[in-house]
Specification:
Low-confidence stretches: 2-18
Oligomer: single chain
Structural class: alpha+beta
Shape: globular
Number of strands: 5
Strand content: 5-15%
Strand order of the largest sheet: 1-5-4-2-3
Number of helices: 8
Order of helices and strands: HEEHEHHHHHEEH
Radius of gyration: 20 Å
Helix content: 55-70%
Length: 202
């Protein structure tokens, strides 16, 4: 009986072991630093408002992550500034301001839609400011947040994290501040998330 139970347990665990074994460093993920991982498991999505794939990711994959991610794994986002030239920096500022003012749920979809659906061409911070105002933010509150210490600090951290991850494209997932999920060998977003959850538990 005991032997039968052990065999049954082995059969149940076999698919999980096979799954872990098939994710290989250098193929499915890259170690981006030799130091310790973050204190708690976390997955960070790096994105740009100018990236059409990021727009799709925000509508289809991010909600899936929020609904299905295992307990104990945090999900964060960071905007990269290497797309969009000088406006890439302003879009990173917009992301930080939206979070500082607690209006990200309204402003982020509005920015994505303005760029990709309405084909709006942003040329300066005032164009971004108008999106915030259209979504209920007082212009003075936007101005104050845009130059605040907290927003500048968040922008600096996002830039530093982007450089540390050695990113060349987005959307990209970095897990525990230590692993970058590689998309070249991935067949679907579901597999992308499976690898991210696997790495979060390493």
């Amino acid at each position: 009986m005991k032997k039968a139970l052990l065999m049954a347990a082995a059969l149940l665990l076999a698919p999980m072991a096979a799954l872990a074994a098939q994710y290989q460093e250098g193929v499915h993920y890259t170690v981006i630093n030799d130091g310790p991982a973050t204190a708690k498991p976390e997955i960070t999505e790096f994105f740009s408002f100018y990236c059409p794939h990021c727009y799709t990711f925000s509508k289809t994959v991010v909600p899936k992550i929020m609904a299905e991610k295992p307990d104990g794994i945090a999900f964060n986002q960071a905007h990269v500034d290497f797309i969009g030239k000088e406006m890439g920096v302003e879009m990173s500022r917009a992301f930080a301001v939206a979070h500082q003012l607690n209006v990200a749920d309204k402003v982020e979809p509005a920015l994505f839609s303005a760029i990709h659906d309405k084909k709006q061409h942003f040329t300066n911070r005032d164009d971004i400011r108008a999106i915030f105002i259209a979504n209920g933010v007082d212009g003075k509150n936007f101005d104050a947040a845009a130059e605040s210490f907290m927003v500048n600090a968040q922008m600096s951290k996002m830039k530093r994290d982007t450089e540390n991850a050695k990113l060349t494209g987005v959307p990209a997932l970095v897990v525990n501040g230590k692993y970058r999920v590689e998309t070249g060998a991935i067949k679907s977003y579901d597999e992308l998330l499976e690898i991210a959850y696997f790495l979060a538990k390493k």
